[in-house]
Write a structure and sequence with these properties.
By secondary structure, the chain is mainly alpha-helical. The protein folds into 2 domains: about 400 residues, no CATH class; about 45 residues. The protein is built from 23 helices and 4 strands. It holds the Pfam family Cons_hypoth698. Keywords: Cell membrane, Membrane, Transmembrane, Transmembrane helix. It comes from Polystyrenella longa.
C-alpha cells in the first residue's frame, strides 16, 4: 500500500520497547479525502481538466476542416512512403505542413505560464530567460512562470496535506526551500555541456538532497515538505494522459508477464535464501526486504511490513536499502543498456521490472528516450497492482505458518480478509489508468483530439510532472542518510540479501522482457511504433 504506517503496537513476542508496524483502520469513505493516493488522483484530475479545457477553448472555428486536412496529409505521406522510390522531399514537406496545422489548431494559452529552466552556457542566470524568437528579439524572463509553478504546487499539495493530517501550515513553511532546491537542480542540469552529456535533473536533485542529509542533516522543520511519494504519485497520474489506451494495451500485455510472473518468483526465492542460506534470524526483516526489492520499494515495504508485523526499525532498514540502490540503479542501468546496445523497448521493460521506485523508473526511462520511459512506466504500474495481493498472501502465510498460536490452537491477532487486497492496493494507479481512458476517448472522438491532447501535456501537464518529479528526487536525497543506514545493517546480511535478490531480479526480468517484448509480442509492438 502507499500509505505510511498509521500506528505501532507492541508484539506479544517482543519487548515493550520494540514497535511493530501496523496499518490501522479499514476502508471507509473518508479515505477519499484522508489518504495520499486519493489526493494524488484529485490533484492530477484538477490539473488535467484545467489544462485540457484551456486548450479546447482556444481551438479555432475551422478545427474540423483543419483536422480533415491533417488526415489527408498523413494518408498522402503513407502512400509516398510505400512507393518504390519514396520522394523524401515531398514527404518532409507534407510533414512540415502537418506540424504547422497542428500548431494553429491547438494553441495552449497556459503554456507561457508554466515552464522549466532554459539551457545556459556560461552564466547560470541565463537559465531564467527564454531566448527571443529571432536574434533581434530580447530574451524574456521566465521568473513569473516559475513563480506560477511554485504557487500552483504549494496550493495544491498544501490543500491535500491540510485535508489529510491538518499539517498544511508546516508543509507551506518547508515547501519554499524544497522548491528552491528543485530550481537549483534544474539550473545544474540545464548547463549546455552537462545537458549534452545526458546528465538530467533527477541526478542533480538527488545529489543536492544527499549533500544536505549526509552533511548537516535534514532539519526537522524541513521534513514536512519532504513528501516523496505524494509528488511522484501526482506526477504519475498526469502521465496517464500521455500514455493513451491503445499503447497501454499493446505494451501492457507483455508487461503483465514481466511484472506478474517474475515478481512472485523473485520474492519467494529471496525469502528462502534469506532463511535457509543466510540464516537471517528475523523472518519479518527477511520478508520486508524481499518484498521491497522485488515489487516496488517503499510502498511494498510498508504494506508487507504491516502484513508480517515487522519492527519499525526493520521497515526503516528495508526502505533505506531501497532508496540507496534506487539512487544507484536509476543512473547505472541506462548506461549499461546503452553500452549493450539494447533497444529502448527492451531497456525500458527491464528497468520497469527492477528499479524499485516508480518515479525513479520514469526518470531512468527518460534518460534512454520517450519510448523507454513509456514502456518502463507501463511495466512498473502493472507491477504496482501486485502490492495489495502480495501483502494479503504474506499476511495469510504469517498467521498460518509464522505467528504463534494460543494454548487453544487459535491464531493470535487479527486474521487477513479479502478487503486487505483493496486496502493495500495503490489507488493512484486508478488515476493513471483513468486518465489514460478519458484522454484516449477524447483523442478518438474529438476533431483533432490527439493534437489537442498533445498540446495539453507538452505545454502544461508534462511541465508540472517534471517539477513534481524533481521535488520527489530532492526529497529522496533529503531522507536518505548513509550513516544511519550503515548503522542498521548488522553483520551485513540484509545488504547481502538485497544484492542476491536484486541479482536474481535483474537476470529473470531481463530474460522475460526479452522473451515478451523482443520475441513473442515483437510484431504488435513494431506495428504500434509505425
Amino acid at each position: 500500500m502507499s500509505e505510511t504506517p498509521s500506528g505501532q503496537t507492541p508484539s506479544s513476542n517482543d519487548s515493550p520497547s520494540e514497535e511493530i508496524v501496523t496499518t490501522a483502520g479499514t476502508p471507509s469513505w473518508s479515505d477519499l479525502y484522508r489518504k495520499e493516493d486519493w489526493w494524488a488522483i484529485w490533484l492530477g484530475a484538477i490539473i488535467l481538466t484545467v489544462s485540457f479545457l484551456a486548450v479546447y477553448a482556444a481551438r479555432p472555428a475551422d478545427v474540423v476542416e483543419q483536422s480533415a486536412r491533417i488526415d489527408t496529409l498523413r494518408s498522402e505521406i503513407r502512400e509516398l512512403k510505400e512507393a518504390d522510390t519514396p520522394d523524401t522531399e515531398a514527404i518532409q514537406a507534407k510533414r512540415d505542413e502537418v506540424v504547422l496545422i497542428e500548431k494553429s489548431i491547438a494553441p495552449n494559452p497556459v503554456k507561457p505560464w508554466l515552464t522549466k529552466l532554459q539551457k545556459w552556457e556560461s552564466s547560470p542566470l541565463d537559465a531564467f530567460y527564454s531566448p527571443g524568437k529571432t536574434d533581434d528579439d530580447a530574451p524574456t524572463s521566465i521568473v513569473p512562470a516559475i513563480l506560477v509553478v511554485f504557487f500552483v504546487s504549494a496550493l495544491l499539495f498544501g490543500l491535500g496535506i491540510q485535508c489529510m493530517d491538518g499539517k498544511g501550515a508546516a508543509f507551506l513553511r518547508a515547501f519554499p526551500v524544497i522548491f528552491l532546491l528543485a530550481i537549483l537542480s534544474y539550473v545544474l542540469a540545464s548547463q549546455a555541456s552537462i545537458k549534452a552529456a545526458g546528465i538530467e535533473y533527477p541526478l542533480w536533485a538527488l545529489l543536492v538532497g544527499l549533500l544536505i542529509s549526509n552533511t548537516i542533516g535534514t532539519p526537522a522543520w524541513l521534513k514536512p515538505g519532504v513528501k516523496t511519494e505524494f509528488y511522484i504519485k501526482t506526477g504519475l497520474v498526469l502521465l496517464g494522459a500521455k500514455i493513451l489506451l491503445e499503447r497501454l494495451l499493446i505494451l501492457g500485455v507483455p508487461g503483465v508477464f514481466v511484472a506478474w510472473v517474475v515478481t512472485p518468483i523473485v520474492l519467494v526465492s529471496t525469502y528462502m535464501i534469506g532463511q535457509r542460506v543466510l540464516k537471517i534470524s528475523s523472518k519479518s526483516l527477511n520478508m520486508t526486504i524481499s518484498a521491497d526489492m522485488s515489487v516496488c520499494g517503499v510502498s511494498a515495504a510498508i504494506a508487507t511490513a504491516a502484513a508480517c508485523r515487522a519492527k519499525k526499525e526493520e521497515l526503516s532498514l528495508a526502505i533505506g536499502l531501497s532508496l540507496a540502490f534506487t539512487a544507484i540503479m536509476m543512473f547505472v542501468m541506462p548506461i549499461i543498456i546503452k553500452a549493450l546496445g539494447m533497444s529502448e523497448v527492451l531497456g525500458g521493460a527491464w528497468m520497469g521490472g527492477t528499479i524499485d521506485a516508480t518515479g525513479a523508473v520514469a526518470a531512468a526511462g527518460s534518460l534512454l528516450g520517450p519510448l523507454a520511459e513509456e514502456v518502463a512506466i507501463t511495466v512498473k504500474m502493472i507491477q504496482n497492482i501486485l502490492i495489495g495481493v502480495i501483502a494479503f498472501f504474506v499476511a495469510i502465510y504469517w498467521v498460518i505458518k509464522v505467528e504463534p498460536r494460543s494454548a487453544t490452537g487459535a491464531i493470535d491477532g487479527p486474521q487477513p480478509t479479502v478487503w486487505e487486497i483493496w486496502y493495500r492496493f495503490p489507488k493512484f494507479v486508478l488515476g493513471f489508468i483513468g486518465a489514460s481512458l478519458v484522454f484516449s476517448y477524447l483523442a478518438a472522438t474529438l476533431p483533432a483530439g490527439d493534437t489537442l491532447i498533445t498540446s495539453m501535456y507538452k505545454g502544461s501537464s508534462d511541465v508540472l510532472r517534471g517539477w513534481f518529479f524533481c521535488l520527489a528526487f530532492v526529497s529522496i536525497g533529503l531522507e536518505t542518510n548513509f550513516k544511519e543506514l550503515a548503522g542498521l545493517i548488522e553483520g551485513g546480511k540484509p545488504l547481502v540479501l538485497y544484492l542476491i535478490g536484486q541479482s536474481i531480479n535483474l537476470a529473470l526480468t531481463l530474460f522475460m522482457a526479452w522473451l515478451m517484448f523482443e520475441v513473442i509480442f515483437k510484431d504488435s509492438i513494431a506495428s504500434m511504433l509505425g
